[in-house]
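Data card: per-record layout.
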Amino acid sequence: MAYVSSLFLQTALGRTPSQAAIALSPLMIGMIAASVVFRPLIERLGRRLVVIGLSVALAGAVVLWETVRTHGIPVSLWAMAPALFILGVGTGASFSSIYDVALGNIAPSEAGSASGSLSAVQQLATAIGSAVVTTVYFAQRADHGARHAMTVSIEVVGGIAALCLGLAWLLPNMAAPQELPGE
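The structure for this 183-residue chain is written out next.
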């Protein structure tokens, strides 16, 4: 969502790359804050933390969708900031916990292989997702304009988040216990 939001800010709202980066700071602040706040809860909440994060991210996407749909191209950066922050909190909560939860039931002897496989799948999914959403954005922009392109792109991201939300229940229930340094 960050990439297509940056494209929207630059191609539709006429922002420079630096201005777009600053405009996306609520998203990054939300991600960082959620990663710090939710990290201690991974052991206790397990996959529920991933589900909570995905749900919050989906809510942020809905708020962003409504903001762009309502305001159109003259949308201000301040109007987008709350939605981007909510989206950041959701992604920060889910991304910071997914590895611990997904590897929760893995035997220590298999952890390296499992972690590598999970990392490869995550990178592949990120590349495919970015390509799909970017393709949707530019195809819709050419045919229907930037406002429509952004709302359709958010719908695609929301659909993917909803799918992930359903699939998150297949993750192990709990994360592996965290070892403290010196134990």
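Known properties of this structure: The domain at 2-168 is CATH 1.20.1250.20 (Growth Hormone; Chain: A;). The longest helix spans residues 111-144.

See the next section for split statistics.
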